């Protein structure tokens, strides 16, 4: 079988179920596992946003979508040349990856005859089901079921949680601010925290600084989609200009953490379990200087 994976989480899952040797092409954002790097790339951004401030990125993407455009392009000649049997895409977020409709249109117009598998995980259980779906689609149902079962075990909440859970703010974007949704509130709950704005299984939502201030979070997590840890730290510096941000108990206490969102929170794959483990370490001592791989505590102002 020849597999084209057009989103990073699907690439990760394909390798996890043992189908990595059959992946012939990936998206421009597929960087995990290492074996996926160097494979032919089938997608690219429709607008160049690298290095732009977050407010300008939001404006560019919002304008493109409002005009009926797509945020990503597909390298049709290369896709035609590779002739995949299976193309894996998503119908969760048109900002995060190539849209399902765009993929179906290209496969139909080019008469590729490929099957299109669309993944739409809204929560942690949906992520586990996605693993099973990829396993079945690639002829590895048994391995997919095994990986999904192991993931469900890792994703489960611990037997005991503190009587009083810390109030946690999770921002998926900083300017304008978006409260993280989908599986992130569940990750926080399983790590021993209470998400003050996110709703499990629901899309991330744009919020105001006034709304954020009213929640009075004790811990703040910064996990913007598509940014490296160093980029998150740099972007976080701009938050100091918001009086509402400075008023948060989490900020005053030095309980603000920048995280590697792509590895642990943005991509609905097996590494979401690693994100929960990182959050457990953070929430156990949110103002401590203990090292957490892929995370960095920001000092109090």
Written description of the protein model:
- With 301 residues, the protein is an alpha/beta fold.
- It is 39% helix and 16% strand.
- Strands 7, 8, 9, 10, 11, 12 and 13 form a 7-stranded mixed β-sheet that branches.
- The longest helix has 15 residues, at 141-155.
- The protein is globular, with a radius of gyration of 20 Å.
Keywords:
301 residues; alpha/beta; Rossmann fold; 2 domains; 7-stranded mixed β-sheet; 4-stranded parallel β-sheet; 13 helices; 13 strands; 39% helix; globular
In angstroms, what is the radius of gyration?
20 Å
Query: Mind telling me the CATH class of the largest domain?
Result: Alpha Beta
Rounded mean pLDDT score: 89
The count of domains is: 2
**Range of helix content:** 25-40%
Brief sketch in words of this structure:
This protein is of the alpha/beta class and 301 residues long. The protein is 39% helix and 16% strand. The protein contains 13 helices and 13 strands.
């Amino acid at each position: 079988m020849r597999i084209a994976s057009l989103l990073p989480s699907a690439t990760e899952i394909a390798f996890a179920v043992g189908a990595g040797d059959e992946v012939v092409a990936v998206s421009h954002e597929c960087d995990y596992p290492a074996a996926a790097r160097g494979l032919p790339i089938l997608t690219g951004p429709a607008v160049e946003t690298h290095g732009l401030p977050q407010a300008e990125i939001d404006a560019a993407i919002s304008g493109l979508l409002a005009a009926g455009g797509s945020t990503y392009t597909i390298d049709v000649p290369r896709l035609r040349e590779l002739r995949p049997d299976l193309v894996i895409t998503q119908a969760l977020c048109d900002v995060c990856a190539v849209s399902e409709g765009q993929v179906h249109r290209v496969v139909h117009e080019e008469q590729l005859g490929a099957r299109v598998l669309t993944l739409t995980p809204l929560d942690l259980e949906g992520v586990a089901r996605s693993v099973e779906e990829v396993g079945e689609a690639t002829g590895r149902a048994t391995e997919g079921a095994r990986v999904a079962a192991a993931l469900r075990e890792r994703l489960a909440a611990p037997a005991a949680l503190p009587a009083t859970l810390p109030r946690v703010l999770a921002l998926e974007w900083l300017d304008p601010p978006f409260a993280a949704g989908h599986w992130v509130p569940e990750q926080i709950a399983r790590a021993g925290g209470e998400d003050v704005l996110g709703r499990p299984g629901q899309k991330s939502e744009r919020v105001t600084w006034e709304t954020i201030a009213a929640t009075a979070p004790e811990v703040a997590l910064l996990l913007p989609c598509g940014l490296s840890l160093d980029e998150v730290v740099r972007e976080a510096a701009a938050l100091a200009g918001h009086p509402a941000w400075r008023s948060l108990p989490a900020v005053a206490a030095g309980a603000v953490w920048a995280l590697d969102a792509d590895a642990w929170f943005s991509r609905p794959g097996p590494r979401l379990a690693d994100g929960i483990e990182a959050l457990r370490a953070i929430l156990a001592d949110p103002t401590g200087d203990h090292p957490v791989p892929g995370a960095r505590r920001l000092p109090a102002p």
